[in-house]
Task: structure prediction
Amino acid sequence: MTSATPTPSALPTRHFMAVIGTGLVVMLADTDAGSVITAAQSGAQWGYKLLLMQLILIPILYIVQELTVRLGLVTGKGHGQLIEQHFGKFWAWFSFSTLLISCIGALLSELSGLAGVGSLLNIPQPITISLVVLALIVMALTRGYLTIERIALIIGGFELIFVIVAYLAQPNSADLMSDSFTIPFDNKDYLYLVSANIGAVIMPWMVFFQQSSVVERKLTTADLPIARADTAIGAVITQIVMVAVLIATAATIGTAAGEHNLDTVQQISESITPFIGNFAGKLLFGIGMTGAAMVATIVVTITAARTFGEVAKVNYGLDYKFRDAPMFYGAYILILIAAAAIVLSGINLVTLSIGVQVINSLLLPFVLGFLFLLAQRLPEPYRLKGTYAIASGVIIFITTAIGVYSGIAGLMN
Result:
């Protein structure tokens, strides 16, 4: 008995499903614990005044990550490799150092967020962190990239819980519309959160991860249209989550009189309970935060280890066995353990997470600068050129300038 031959109409669908995934994973990771906390603090402190920014960032995020995908598919090389090829070893290691700063900062946010969720369940921080680190090490050592990508997609899907939370918070539509267009650019505290929100959406490790992932999956230029659609869908989903978190906190405490700073995961959880109850609030927040933090922890750790492998010119990638890529897996394990040790030393999660996002904004001139220059060096017909190049350059410049200016202004406050 012979197997059935796929119908012509089924082949494009099968191909689409085979290609899609990397963009969704990196975008779900983009809405990590630090981003959730930044959005929550934005809603708590400023109501809906930072809501419009979340929508404006959707096309900007797509432009950045589309260039990343294009570089990976056309050249078949990771971001660190391309920087070395075109600009030399010094700049390759320099780019890795900026990436490492961003990755370590992100991991601190993710592990702290998971520890905070554990605390909601009365689980001691050392136990939560140890279990997470152990699970991630075992997963990396026993599973290939595609399997881990699917795991990350499933875990990251829990972030959509925040959309339910925002709906249950019953935001006042009139307040939402009027407040969204009230932008106090003369307030340095506001500017600090502007910078944090930019850094929470456009992160250095996203560029490195997505480019290396499409290479590791052996995608080609024929897959570019689907990869672009994957990235566009992900960009919308990640900002829907950010909007939902901001609305949830703005609708509960952000519209009340007085200042409302959130200092712990427990406080963020409690801030969304007035309309949906204590138990439901903690449960939904805990599920969403776990999804956000876990998928980002997976992505960030892989990114740092991969890029180290690229610039150090050693075997790297989850499809290698440990004996064939010991430095890659060693870097992966070392980064996780180092971040876990710092988290267990005791730090303020909210202050740390927002600070990490501001650092991301301050690193944008280097990250987006290299990205833009590399995209202009691609072969025809994939080279960034013409009107789109000008528009992309202007958007990247303005976004970077606002992120850096807002961050510095906020830090000087």
Q: What stands out?
A: Confidence is low (pLDDT under 50) at residues 1-11.
